[in-house]
TrEMBL record:
One of its GO terms (cellular component) is membrane. Keywords: Kinase, Phosphoprotein, Transferase. Residues 18-70 form the HAMP domain. Residues 95-274 form the Histidine kinase domain. Its EC number is 2.7.13.3. PANTHER family: SENSOR HISTIDINE KINASE, TWO-COMPONENT SENSOR PPRA. Gene3D superfamilies: 1.10.287.130, 6.10.340.10, Histidine kinase-like ATPase, C-terminal domain. GO terms for molecular function: phosphorelay sensor kinase activity. This is histidine kinase.
């Protein structure tokens, strides 16, 4: 009986080693390969039992991880290329802006001097005033290019979002564009948060002006601020009665120099980098 029991134990041990332990070892080995980044490795098995199903599940998991990894690598590569293009574009913008900024200043100065020498009824005054307007517009474009190129370091400090919103609205509400726009505020008391107040104010101003222009100077603009549901963030919402942003343009609104405005009415820089 003892000998028969020993033989039976050896048979069972051999079966367990071949039927259970070896497949598990293959799964452990595969897990090690995947942990090292070799997600192409697949567990091979001809079995049709639960261990085979486990191996199939492992293979599917590895394939899913590889697919996600490939997408992440592609996205990262695209972002790096985009950053490099933006850096080159910024250097080019700064160079061009510096080269033409001083001549524009000289042109403005001499046109103003010429305007002072003309009589109020001189027919040339209208032409010189147009020259001043267009040259000033060119300087504004140059300023936008310089702002885009500089990308100054943010000055982070504790600031009140509501104060910044109120200050921004006070700055823009007296413009002619806002005469027929009703501004509604929903600004409950909020805690101060860390931010660059100056740059955030510029973002708010850009959004508010764009919203008002989309309403063609008439309609209702609602500005609201609140704490998020998870109590981790402050949400700021701008709602207007304008035409909205098309689905096609939503993918482009953060691209530098993108604008839907007519030529001469918007450079398309600033909000996406502030």
């Amino acid at each position: 009986i003892t000998l028969a029991g020993m033989i039976m134990a050896l048979v069972v041990s051999s079966f367990l080693a071949k039927g259970v332990l070896q497949p598990i070892k293959r799964l452990v080995f595969a897990s090690g390969r995947w942990a090292k980044g070799d997600l192409d490795y697949q567990v091979k098995t001809t079995r049709k039992d639960e261990i085979a199903k486990l191996a199939e599940t492992f293979n599917l998991m590895a394939s899913s991880l590889k697919e996600r990894d490939d997408k992440l690598k592609e996205y990262t590569s695209q972002q790096i290329m985009k950053s490099e293009r933006l850096a080159t574009l910024g250097q080019l913008a700064a160079g061009v802006a510096h080269e033409i900024n001083n001549p524009l200043g000289g042109i403005l100065m001499y046109v103003h001097l010429a305007l002072e020498d003309l009589d109020e009824k001189d027919i040339l005054r209208a032409n010189l005033e147009k020259a001043i307007t267009e040259t000033t517009r060119c300087k504004d474009i140059v300023k936008g290019l310089l702002d885009f190129a500089r990308q100054t370091e943010p000055k982070i400090e504790q600031s009140d979002v509501n104060e910044i919103l109120e200050r921004t609205l006070d700055l823009v509400k007296n413009q002619a564009l806002f005469q027929n726009v009703k501004i509604t505020r929903s600004l409950p008391s909020l805690p101060k948060i860390l931010m660059d107040a100056g740059q955030i104010q510029q973002v708010f101003a850009n959004i508010i002006l764009n919203a008002t222009e989309a309403m063609e100077g008439k309609g209702e603009l609602t500005v609201a601020a609140r704490i998020s549901h998870d109590n981790e963030h402050i949400e700021i919402e701008f709602t207007d009665t304008g035409c909205g942003i098309s689905t096609e343009n939503r993918k482009k609104i953060f691209d530098p120099f993108f604008t839907t405005k007519e030529v001469g009415h918007g450079l398309g820089v600033g909000i996406n980098f502030i």
